[in-house]
Amino acid sequence: MPENSQEKAAVLLSGGLDSMVAAALAREKGHDVHALTIDYGQRHKRELEAARAIARALGLAGHSEIALDLRQFGGSALTADIDVPKDGVGETIPVTYVPARNLVFLALTTAFAESIGAGRIVIGVNALDYSGYPDCRPEFIAAFAEAARLGTKAGIEGQGFAIDAPLQFLSKADIAREADRLGLDTGLSWSCYDPRGDGLPCGLCDSCRLRMGGFAAAGLTDGLTYPPETE
């Protein structure tokens, strides 16, 4: 891995608001940003389209996509024929949790980073305003960083990976403010778990509620259009 590898960053770009802001922050720091988007068999492809649009808008150095069919495992409302909850954000891990998703995604992003000579991995996880997913927590990110050091050629040769989670301790309102500060078109991103037939976000799933609440708390207008009855 070249000596300037810390200047090259591999960003896990889902197409959501958080990953968009994380990628933009990496670009703002002057990193050579290469994005990886994973098509994991989610029931809708809207977020994949969003990731492509974000990569173009940010002028990233590269954008790669990989297919990984997690529908074969099931167990989540995002990959199986299970209703997405619409009754508010609860305190337990919801059925929209995809088994070990960030563990799998970070492993793939680490392989991607090592293959392109990137010494920095960027992920937009958030430990405050989230739906209780265990793979968004700081202790998970720290443990994975150690696993990546021990389990890669780059790591054992002393040229491992810095894992940046710049949004980890920000509220959704803080993230909305960062998007505004960075001048991002938030309408390019997508967060909804259950898009309507007319192409609008549902406005009722956990992800929609958290995002809408964040923009409202920040006193900002989201670039996405929501159904009038949910605004």
From TrEMBL:
Signal peptide per UniProt: none
EC numbers: 6.3.4.20
GO-annotated biological processes: tRNA queuosine(34) biosynthetic process
Keywords: ATP-binding, Ligase, Metal-binding, Nucleotide-binding, Queuosine biosynthesis, Zinc
Essential cofactor(s): Zn(2+)
Reaction(s) this enzyme catalyzes, per UniProt: 7-carboxy-7-carbaguanine + NH4(+) + 2 ATP = 7-cyano-7-carbaguanine + 2 AMP + 2 diphosphate + 2 H(+)
Positions of ATP binding: L13, S14, G15, G16, L17, D18, S19, M20, V21, A22, A23
One example GO MF annotation: ligase activity, forming carbon-nitrogen bonds
Enzyme class: ligase
Free-text comment on the cofactor: Binds 1 zinc ion per subunit.
SUPFAM superfamilies: Adenine nucleotide alpha hydrolases-like
Positions that bind Zn(2+): C192, C202, C205, C208
Organism superkingdom: Bacteria
Pathway participation: Purine metabolism; 7-cyano-7-deazaguanine biosynthesis
InterPro entries per the UniProt record, alphabetical: QueC, Rossmann-like_a/b/a_fold
Reported function: Catalyzes the ATP-dependent conversion of 7-carboxy-7-deazaguanine (CDG) to 7-cyano-7-deazaguanine (preQ(0)).
UniProt-listed HAMAP family: QueC
Family stated for the protein in its record: Belongs to the QueC family.
Protein name, UniProt field: 7-cyano-7-deazaguanine synthase
Phylogenetic classification of the source organism: Bacteria, Pseudomonadati, Pseudomonadota, Alphaproteobacteria, Sphingomonadales
Gene: queC
